Amino acid sequence: MGRLVRGLAAGGQLRVLAAETTDVVEEARRRHGTSPTATAALGRALTGAALLAFLLSKSPRERVTLILEGDGPLGGVVAEAGVDGAVRGYVKNPAAEAELRDDGKLNVGTLVGAGELRIVRVLASGEQFDSSVPLVSGEIAEDLAHYLWQSEQIPSAVLLGVRVAPGGHVEAAGGLVVQVLPGAEEETITRLEQNLAGIRGFTDLLTEHGLEGAAERVLEGLGLDWTDLRSLGYAEDAVPLRFACRCSREKALDALAYFDPEEREAMIREDGGAEVVCHWCGEVYRFSPEELRALGAEEVRCPDCGELWYKKRADGVEIVYPDSICKCGRPVETEPEPPNA
Ligand code: ZN
Questions:
Q1: 287 CA from centroid of ligand 1 (Å)
Q2: Per the domain annotation, does 168 fall within a domain?
Q3: Are residues 258 and 163 part of one domain?
Q4: Count of the separate structural domains present in the chain
Q5: CA of 86 to the centre of ligand 1 (A)
């Protein structure tokens, strides 16, 4: 389980959001089988989406989707988060990899490439806002800061980090956003800039000092006060973050209903059923021939009494009613010819 905390610094001149997302990113890696650099890209995007959701949302049930459309080998990153703490996301090419940078760090910028950062906000009403900015570096934190300034007029600093262990699993992941609020003094901004210049990476701070400790280092000398989340109705002192998808077996089956009955029959012939893979979370849903054939079923009932006469199925007609006369006395109409007969 990840955690998100928030606070104010410099007597209310700075707003701070910090998130620890190690478990969230590790689950994403496990589900999608991402390469080390793809894990770093996806992890930064997932963490960024969570921070953005809490930074931009004005009411519960809002969601923020962050889409990196780059021309690099990764082929794109999509991450979505809501203020309920649910985070999900994927990359187009999970196996894509890039050479390490000269400083020995994972080369997320090269893997993402040049392109656009799109942010889609969906309000509780279903209303949608979409805006985009060109990618600055593809390193994601810098791109988010650029977006916040260009599109939302929010001057901010963004730190995002994912540390991948030699075996590929996620050792630490997290991030932080400091928003400079209107009326902030020059002295405050200078101090913040000095602090940020001295930071090597957020995951180093996170592993050494923990989430709150890491944020306190970034805001050193600026008097960081944590917001009491319990008094705001949260059950804990931090908002729990988790990798969670909204897919289900029912929704997957619905998706199959869009295919023609002939196409579903072909799936049964060729694969012995159908498989639907959720691109958000990698969950695999398998459906038997019976489930596929029942999908196209249409009931025909007696127009007088509503008694079920027969079911029309994708593979033909299944007669249910045993007599030629309905129990209400009306003759059961002849079933139509099965399709493709
Ligand atoms: Zn899913």
A1: 16
A2: yes
A3: no
A4: 2
A5: 12
Considering the domain architecture, whether residues 278 and 169 belong to the same structural domain is answered as no
Instruction: Tell whether 194 and 309 lie within a shared domain.
Output: no
Write the pLDDT tens digit of every residue in 54-108: 999 888 889 999 999 999 999 999 999 999 999 999 999 999 999 999 988 899 9
154 lies in a domain? yes
The encoded tokens of residue 287 equal 């459906």
Cβ-Cβ contacts under 8 Å for 142 (sequence gap 6 or more): 136, 158
Report which of 200, 44, 57 is spatially closest to residue 135, judged by C-alpha positions: 44
Report CA(333)–ligand 1 centroid distance (Å).
Answer: 44
Q: How far apart are CA 131 and CA 134, in angstroms?
A: 11
What is the whole-number distance in angstroms between the Cα of residue 21 and the centre of ligand 1?
A: 19
Q: Same structural domain for residues 166 and 93?
A: yes
Same domain, 260 and 229: no
Ligand 1 centroid–CA 81 distance in Å is 13
Compute the mean pLDDT over every residue in the chain, rounded to the nearest whole number: 91
Residues in the chain: 341
When pLDDT is averaged across residues 180-209 and rounded to a whole number, the result is: 95
Do 184 and 128 fall within a single domain?
yes
Q: What is the pLDDT of residues 286-313, one digit of tens each?
A: 999 988 888 766 777 888 888 888 776 6
State the residue for tokens 């909204």.
Answer: 246
Strands across the sheet containing 316-319: 298-301, 308-313, 316-319
Query: pTM of the predicted model, to two decimals?
Result: 0.85
Do 152 and 265 sit in the same domain of this protein? no
* Residue 276 sits in the same domain as residue 299: yes
